[in-house]
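User: I'm new to structure prediction. If I give you an amino acid sequence, what do you actually give back? Let's try with this one:
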Amino acid sequence: MALKRVEGGVQPGINWWRFTTRIPGIHVGITWPEVIQGGLLSVATGGAVAPLMMRFFEIPFEVAWTVVTLQLFWVWSSTFLFGEPYAPGWITPALPLVLVFLSGFKPGAEAVQAMTALTLTVSAIFLFFGVTRLGGRFFSWIPNELKAGIIMGSAVAAFNGEFNRIKTMPVTLTVVWAIVFLLMFSVWYGKMKEKNKLLARLASMAMLVGFLAAAIVGPLAGEMKFAIKMGLSLPQFGPFLQAVSPFYVGWPAWDMYLKALPLAVMIYIVVFGDIIVADTLLRDADRVRLDEKIVVDPIRTHFALFFRNIGHLLTGGVFIPLHGPMWTGVTVFIVERYKESRKNLDSIFTGTINWYWLGLILMLLTPVVNFMMPMLPVALSITLILTGFACAYISMRMVETPTGRGYALFIGLVTATFGPAYGLGVGIILFFLLLVQRKPLIPMPYDVPMKE
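Assistant: Good question. You get back a string of structure tokens that encode the predicted 3D arrangement of the chain. For your 452 residues, that looks like this:
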């Protein structure tokens, strides 16, 4: 039985420095809907990193699967160890740009060193803006059009990668994309789910539904096969660390840090946008649920992101998606469950903490690993195609003038085609050439907001 909190107070836990540790079963209760769905989705989505580790770092699947254990622990640490109220995840919008960055290096040791340089640079930015408290001010300095261009770069890079991937599994991926898009973005389905709880529940589990659909369609289309065996699959930490840890492979040269810096700045801009969205969601929930006070602290978030990324690098080597503040879909799902009633979730942490821990057990079971192995490309594809679609419409909503939208699309194409350094450089120059107006004399059609 979880510890009871004072009405309107903060959920109990072990306080240390800026953080609060909460242990499931002691500080929060166990809720099986979150545990079961979260465990399955966490392993499925987390396992999608394994093919990337195989591709860029040249390691076999059995070794690459070890990354699931390490990432699940450091993802889960955000909520249970550091006390962040969000459902944590990757820096997903930046993943397509990271893949473009790594493609510029030779697979193996050189790619590991490049990813090490990027991880250290991103972590240093988190630490700097956490210590100085300049995060919000820096974000306000970046023009909306440039933010939109960076996000559009993620969309274009994601679409390019997935349009190439669909050639390998045309039937399976077409069906899966259609199902996921329908459940998450369809206008008419959105109206129907407002009146039907079953349709609403399917929409809240869109990624899992798409994943299960692939398990049916893939074998029928002859695009995947399953070979299920019994037993345990223990992580191969030794070979894994020898392949992806800078302590074995070597630390990057200074020029790699310079190459990583433009992308690191872009990643920070994307992350700060996620923090703003996450805080908005939780402040809205805080107004509905007066029985609990949710402490939103962006500075704590900066420090937690620093420790998670550095911790993963030092204990488990490089991690391609990087650790971000929020898994958006899961956070929305948990917040909505939390807002409905205290019977659903006694605390916001009841949802976020229970979401991940079962995955640490499931990924050790050989039948689960055998089932996941042929499904990993599908899991990665779902993640990236949703990222691309969401980034595209978010980018378009951030700018209101035709000139601004054209600028954002162009910067996105430059970023996805030539890399983050070119995207950031061209973006700054074009912003001054196209969008800076000290005193507009004649309002032109391409400068008038779309609504007007």
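You can read the tokens as a compact description of the fold. Here is one thing that stands out. Residues 438-444 have pLDDT under 50 and may be disordered.
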